């Protein structure tokens, strides 16, 4: 029974982790009644559309949570990733994540004299993939050279599944850029990696997201990244999900 | 991240701007009144996610001791320390820089109360207690 201490929360290009103290990820399915005369007098339902929402409660940090939330007013759809139970308190490749490309449905800025300023956000799933449950490919990492992340065992991708890949670029200094790829391989050594999703180059804080419907028996997945530019560094975090 | 000692030093530095007030960063054996003594705080950890950089709430008690007995002058002196608008206001001195020189995220002087007779008998000084909540990482 984990005690929540270190949930990492990324929203677009902002790391909300140290500003947030509560996050709630809610998923629900519409129940559609399909009871017939043959059902022995019992109600029968099937699952309808899934609705997923995320509520994030944060302290109002002028450089983090306030711009992260208010910048997405007006219908912006932005990627939010939450690492639920970091291994040993430190976010590690392979840890479980929830991710959502959410519409900022509402936010609250409660103000009470003497209280710490807060700003809370409510996001609603706004893209066809809905709520994703996947794994961390890379915790928040500062880089200045190209490389790849740790292999994680996300499993094979069947014909009915899609592989999703998301990245949060949390800081950029100098003129660094990142081009990130999701790769799979049959062995964790990645002797012959297969490129599965390639995102466009990112040169400022923000996020990237892509998917692939190509099936594979490869069970091992990782991020591979090419760092461009000649000075500074770049901090990113990435995840993948198959569902 | 800030240490308790850094925050305590920040409070003492703020208090030392009050003319005539002797300040103590720890519980001393004996004080020279009028004096302000910053007591080891109670701490609420994990006010935000991330064990390393989580926000913490420190509640400091600051005793302001004005005399070894209740005299008219002592009561008047204590009034001025408690008065938020006076030139020797403890609240004003502490809240002037809510970051305490950069070691805190913010702070608030929550309350003041005069010491009761039992506390005065125990401490041997007349005075009051300020409660200060400091938020720091």
Could you characterize what this model shows?
- The complex is a heterodimer of chains A (243) and B (137).
- With 243 residues, chain A is mainly β.
- Chain A has a single domain (8-29, 48-242), classed as Sandwich (Jelly Rolls), CATH 2.60.120.1110.
- Chain A is built from one helix and 16 strands.
- Chain A has one helix at residues 65-70; strands at residues 8-11, 14-15, 20-33, 45-59, 77-83, 96-108, 118-125, 131-143, 147-148, 152-153, 163-172, 177-185, 194-198, 206-212, 220-228, 234-242.
- In chain A, the strands form two sheets. In chain A, strands 1, 2, 3, 4, 5, 6, 7, 8, 11, 14 and 16 form an eleven-stranded antiparallel beta sheet that branches. In chain A, strands 9, 10, 12, 13 and 15 form a five-stranded antiparallel beta sheet that branches.
- The mean pLDDT of chain A is 94.
- Chain B has 137 residues and is α+β, with helices and mostly antiparallel strands.
- Chain B has a single domain, classed as Phage minor tail protein U (Alpha-Beta Plaits), CATH 3.30.70.1700.
- Chain B is 26% helix and 31% strand.
- Chain B has four helices and six strands, in the order H-E-E-E-E-H-H-E-H-E.
- Chain B has helices at 4-15, 72-82, 90-95, 117-123; strands spanning 22-24, 35-38, 42-44, 56-67, 106-114, 126-136.
- In chain B, strands 1, 2, 3, 4, 5 and 6 form a six-stranded mixed beta sheet that branches.
- The termini of chain B are close together.
């Amino acid at each position: 029974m984990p005690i929540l201490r270190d949930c990492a929360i990324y929203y677009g290009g902002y790391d909300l982790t140290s500003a947030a103290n509560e996050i709630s990820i809610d998923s629900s399915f519409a129940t559609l009644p399909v009871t017939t005369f043959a059902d022995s007098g019992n109600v029968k339902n099937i699952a309808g559309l899934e609705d997923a929402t995320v509520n994030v409660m944060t302290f109002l940090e002028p450089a983090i949570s306030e711009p992260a939330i208010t910048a997405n007013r007006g219908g912006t759809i932005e990627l939010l990733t939450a690492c639920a139970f970091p291994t040993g308190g430190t976010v590690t490749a392979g840890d479980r994540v929830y991710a959502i490309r959410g519409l900022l449905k509402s936010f609250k800025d409660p103000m009470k004299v003497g209280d710490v300023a807060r700003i809370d956000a409510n996001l609603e799933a706004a893209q066809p993939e809905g709520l994703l449950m996947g794994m961390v490919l890379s915790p928040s990492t500062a880089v200045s050279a190209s490389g790849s992340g740790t292999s994680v065992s996300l499993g094979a991708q069947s014909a009915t599944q899609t592989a999703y890949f998301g990245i949060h670029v949390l800081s950029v200094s100098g003129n660094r850029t990142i081009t990130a790829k999701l790769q799979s391989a049959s062995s964790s050594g990645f002797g012959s990696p297969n490129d599965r999703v390639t995102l466009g180059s990112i040169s400022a804080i923000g996020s990237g997201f892509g998917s692939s419907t190509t099936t594979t028996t490869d069970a091992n997945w990782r991020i591979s990244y090419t760092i461009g530019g000649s000075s500074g560094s770049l901090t990113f975090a990435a995840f993948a999900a198959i569902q | 991240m800030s240490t308790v000692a850094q925050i305590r030093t920040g409070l003492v530095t703020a208090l030392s701007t009050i003319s005539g007030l002797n300040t103590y960063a720890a519980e001393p054996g004996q004080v020279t009144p009028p004096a302000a003594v910053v007591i080891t705080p109670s701490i609420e950890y994990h006010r935000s996610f991330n064990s390393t950089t989580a926000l913490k709430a420190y509640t400091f008690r600051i005793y302001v001791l004005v005399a070894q007995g209740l005299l008219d002058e002592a009561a008047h002196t204590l009034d001025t320390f408690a008065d938020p608008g006076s030139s020797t206001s403890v609240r004003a001195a502490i809240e002037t820089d809510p970051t305490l020189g950069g070691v805190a995220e913010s702070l608030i002087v929550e309350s003041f109360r005069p010491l009761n007779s039992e506390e005065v008998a125990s401490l041997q000084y007349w005075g009051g207690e300020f409660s200060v909540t400091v938020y720091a990482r």
